[in-house]
Design goal:
4-stranded antiparallel beta sheet; Methylamine Dehydrogenase, Chain H; mainly beta
């Protein structure tokens, strides 16, 4: 017996079992090894919306090959929007604009398949943008913004009725969500503190005249919103939780030559935008209160959405060129600069809508 009353001969198995349990737990927390990087986009077809799943292979010369095509069995058809497809951890979602519902996407190891179909709230129609958080999915359509418990898909919080049918995107921060309205404003949607669901109220944020023409893409950095008033001379802007707006001049010449339209938050103070008429990825740097346009990376066609991986290692952008849609993936270095890694093959689809990365 030792000082604590245990026989020394009994300690070996106990320690062995304890160590095995700890190692197994550490392995589970670390996640599966050799987990593939997938890039997802949707065809947005008004007849049959499909999700195209591409696998990024970084061994040797990087490549982006089609891994799977998932038919939602529903109708697409959205336009002038971003964020119609989202992915976070092992779950994602794609909106079916023409069928008034959302299809859940589920990752099982190195396979992505379809989950449940989630209907919109009563009388809410035409979903064209989604946002995902830990416990909520947010949806905006032509007449409503709503939140659903995630991953169950059950409606939660209160529906925000919209009288303006021009919503381009919904995004979510720590304490508030935002909806960009192409008509010329941004809505602030408060979140319930306990659940993160929408409270049912909204406040229109007045934008200055030099940054209010066609707000489109948006992304959050904590509670700081970055968005693109795409057709304005100041084609990027920041909004804080107090609704203070800080416009930032974009690439020149301004619209119609350049129009940063779609937004993804990168590492550090870097923001990436899809510049559709400029056929480029236009990069901005900010300090939380202001910023500047950094540079543009040319693309073979006009981008229609953009996404950054959770670990800030990859950027994916969708664009169309020569009547075909493509996905391009860039590696992101420690300073936020981009290097083209791989481009998808053409699939005979004229355009894609929404793009997301699953690691």
């Amino acid at each position: 017996m030792n000082a604590r009353g245990f026989k020394k001969s009994n300690l070996g198995p106990v320690v062995t079992i304890l160590m095995a349990t700890l190692l197994a737990s550490a392995s589970a927390l670390a996640g599966p090894r050799n987990r593939s990087v997938f890039v997802l986009t949707s065809t947005n077809s008004s007849a049959n919306n499909e999700v195209e799943v591409f696998r990024l292979d970084t061994d040797g010369t990087p490549s982006l090959s089609l891994a799977n095509t998932l038919s939602t069995g529903a109708k697409g058809g959205a336009s002038g929007n971003a964020g119609i497809l989202q992915f976070q951890d092992n779950l994602g979602a794609v909106a079916n604009y023409g069928s008034n519902n959302v299809t859940q996407l589920v990752r099982y190891g190195n396979y992505i398949g379809l989950g449940r179909t989630i209907s919109l709230a009563r009388d809410c129609v035409q979903p064209d943008s989604l946002a995902l958080a830990a416990r909520q999915m947010y949806v905006v359509g032509s007449n409503c913004a709503e939140s659903h418990a995630w991953p169950s898909g059950n409606l939660s919080g209160n529906v925000v009725n919209l009288t303006d049918a021009s919503a381009a995107q919904i995004a979510v921060g720590n304490t508030w969500a935002a909806v960009t309205l192409k008509s010329g404003s941004v809505l602030q949607l408060p979140l319930r503190q306990a659940s993160g669901a929408l409270s049912g109220t909204s406040t229109a944020i007045a934008l200055p005249s030099n940054a209010n023409d066609t707000p489109l893409g948006e992304a959050f950095w904590g509670d700081l919103l970055g968005f693109t008033p795409a057709h304005s001379p100041n084609s990027f802007a920041l909004i804080d939780s107090d609704r203070d707006v800080s416009p930032i001049a974009g690439p020149t010449p301004a619209f119609p030559g350049n129009a940063p339209c779609w937004v993804a938050k990168g590492p550090l103070s870097v923001w990436y935008t899809g510049n559709t008429p400029g056929q480029a990825i236009s990069i901005f740097l900010t300090d939380g209160q202001g910023g500047l346009f950094y540079k543009s990376i040319p693309l073979p066609g006009g981008p229609t959405d953009i996404a950054v991986s959770a670990d800030f290692q990859w950027l994916a952008v969708i664009y169309s060129a020569g009547g075909e849609a493509y996905v391009a993936v860039y590696s992101i270095d420690a300073f936020g600069d981009l290097t083209l890694a791989a481009t998808s093959p053409a699939l005979g689809v004229p355009s894609f809508s929404g793009v997301a990365i699953s690691e």
